[in-house]
Amino acid sequence: MSKIEDWGIHKVTLPLPFELDHINCYALKGNAGWSIVDCGVNIVASKNHWLDFMRTNNIRPEDIKAIYVTHYHPDHYGAAGWLQKISGAPIYMSSPEARAVEIFQKEKSRFIEALNILYQTNGMPTILLDTFCKSLNEMGSLVEPVAKISIINSNEKVKIGNLYFQIINTPGHADGHLCFYNEQFGILISGDQLLPEISPNISLWPGRDPNPLGSFLQSLQQLRQLPIKLVLPAHGQPFRDPVKRIDQIEGHHRERLKQMRQIAAQGATAYEIVRETFNTDLSPLEMRLAMGEVLAHLAYLVHKGELKVKNEKGVNVYHAVD
User: Looking at the record's lineage, which domain of life comes first (predicted)?
Assistant: First the structure.
């Protein structure tokens, strides 16, 4: 069995200041220099890990020729601006994720207001909204400095290191989430789309995909059709047998949909369903993820005609369909 280093691929595991405490980034060595996929957050520990990796492998900053970001979440994009600053390398993302960067940097207060309205109309108490708003504002330092972004498109082929990868658009976890597939060796750099032990968070966001869970499940079917031999995920260890893992993730969401359908049958807000479904002792970040995930599942059920939603005194209440 080949080691990924035999293909010039190096897994660079960086610390995260969250419950999910690490991210796997990938550095690929090529004849013309190095390419990076995902960057970690902009914290001292993360940057020190990158500098240690560069020293160990005799990489000068200018040897980094390209940086690819699977999607605009802090653990994937956060240190991109710093890496670009020290290397001069271009940063490549999908168009929807580049737009997400622009929204958060230029329209953050408006975005947070829209998110607060979404959560408030779905039953979240005001005191939690205030805490949540503060925690989201604090995320800003993790994604600075701002990077200059170049756009890449689905189905293009790009040379990363010495390998050619097809860009695959896999929306759901993020509207413009990208995976990178090497047909020659059956390697998938999966970002957060396909993880070995956890299911990626699928959240409903204001102004974005109105049915993200539907998009995510369709993306899984797209990957199911590929002869993938090895998955290189953003969290957890590389793994084989992606079809088995896709089956498990789909099963997880079937169970979650069944559970939420039952809770909502007699009438419930999204926040009430969060309280029934998840641990009640949630951090602000965990509450945001839980609320977004419940809303995504409810939106899927409404889209499928299995639930209906009524606005009752300014709050959305979900009910079984008559």
Answer: Bacteria
Of 283, 249, 269, 23, nearest in space to 128 by CA: 283
Residues 214, 296: Cα–Cα separation, whole Å: 9
Token output for 14:
């960086």
Residue 243, CA distances (Å) to 222, 224, 239 in order: 11, 6, 11
Domain parsing of the chain, residue ranges = 4-317
Domain 4-317 -> CATH class: alpha beta
- Quote the CA–CA distance of 187 and 190 in Å, as a whole number: 9
Backbone angles phi, psi at 256, to 5 degrees: -65, -40
Q: Please report the pLDDT score of residue 1 as a whole number.
A: 44
- What's the CA gap between 235 and 248, in Å, rounded? 17
Element spanning 244, H or E: helix 242-264
User: How many residues are present in the chain?
Assistant: 322
Q: Is residue 31 helix, strand or coil?
A: coil
Give the whole-angstrom CA distance, residue 290 versus residue 258.
Answer: 16
Q: Which long-range contacts (CB under 8 A, 24 or more apart) does 238-246 make?
A: 238/4, 238/11, 239/196, 242/188, 242/194, 245/194, 245/196, 246/194, 246/220
- Both structure tokens of 196: 């070995």
What is the value of pTM for the model shown? 0.95
- 10 Å CB burial of residue 98 (0-12, 13-18, 19+) is buried
Q: How far is CA 214 from CA 31, 125, 233, 251, in A?
A: 41, 28, 21, 14
Angle in degrees, 0-180, between the axes of helices 242-264 and 270-277, rounded to the nearest 10: 120
Closest CA to 259 of 301, 217, 223, 224: 301
